Amino acid sequence: MADPIKVLLVDDHQVVRRGLRTFLEVQDDIEVVGEAADGAEGVARAEELRPDVVLMDVKMPGMDGVDALRKLRELDNPARVLIVTSFTEQRTVVPALRAGAAGYVYKDVDPDALAGAIRSVHAGHILLQPEVAGALLSQEDTSSGQGRGGSLTEREREVLGLIADGRSNREIARALVLSEKTVKTHVSNILMKLDLADRTQAALWAVRHGVAG
């Protein structure tokens, strides 16, 4: 049996953390390894515990979720961050996604859906609802990355198209009959050539420039 997915809960409301923990403790493949009450503590705990997935609130006193995301990126922490929010406005969710979140769910999410979202981002998927993806695209500079796609090899364009389809590295490896290590190398090259920070930005670039899997 595979090791459970290690999850860190970051929310300033104890009752929310307790509820999330209750949801997740009944899942055989998910383990809650710690909690934090604000962004700064969340960053420190993520560095200490090295979770696979962080469930992060956006609005918190002190360091909020967006600043915590940026700090985790600066530290090159590999945890995938799933935003858990009660706010539906794009102006709240979009900055978090641009800062590196792998997706978001609402705090009233069904327990099974929450567990599924954790498994999905852990597998490398990006959870974007269409209206939020559209908002992200509309905020991008239309000239950003223009012309850089020509520097991609044909294989890299194939990988990029599958990233845009929400495929994980493992799924891309299977689809293209490659090793996961080779896929990771292609992903790194794509990000470097297009001057992008993460898979979310790569997926959005692919959508804007018509790269389909």
Give your account of this protein's structure:
This protein is an alpha/beta fold. It is 51% helix and 13% strand. A 5-stranded parallel β-sheet has the order 2-1-3-4-5, sandwiched between helices. Strand 4, helix 4 and strand 5 form a beta-alpha-beta unit. The longest helix is centred in the last third of the chain and has 15 residues, at 180-194. It is globular. The model has no long low-confidence stretch (mean pLDDT 84).
Which structural traits does this protein have?
213 residues, five-stranded parallel beta sheet, 51% helix, alpha/beta, 10 helices
- Major beta sheet, specifics? 5 strands, parallel
Sheet-strand content, in percent, reads: 5-15%
How many individual β-strands?
5
Computed Rg: 17 Å
Helix percentage range: 40-55%
Distance between the termini: 32 Å
Mean pLDDT: 84
Low-pLDDT stretches:
none
Summarize the structure in short.
The chain is α/β, with parallel strands linked by helices and 213 residues long.
How would you summarize the topology of this molecule?
Layout: E1 5-10, H1 14-25, E2 30-36, H2 39-49, E3 53-56, H3 65-74, E4 80-85, H4 90-98, E5 103-106, H5 111-122, H6 130-139, H7 154-164, H8 169-176, H9 180-194, H10 199-208
Parallel strand pairs: 1-2, 1-3, 3-4, 4-5
Helix pairs in contact: 2-3, 4-6, 7-9, 7-10, 8-9
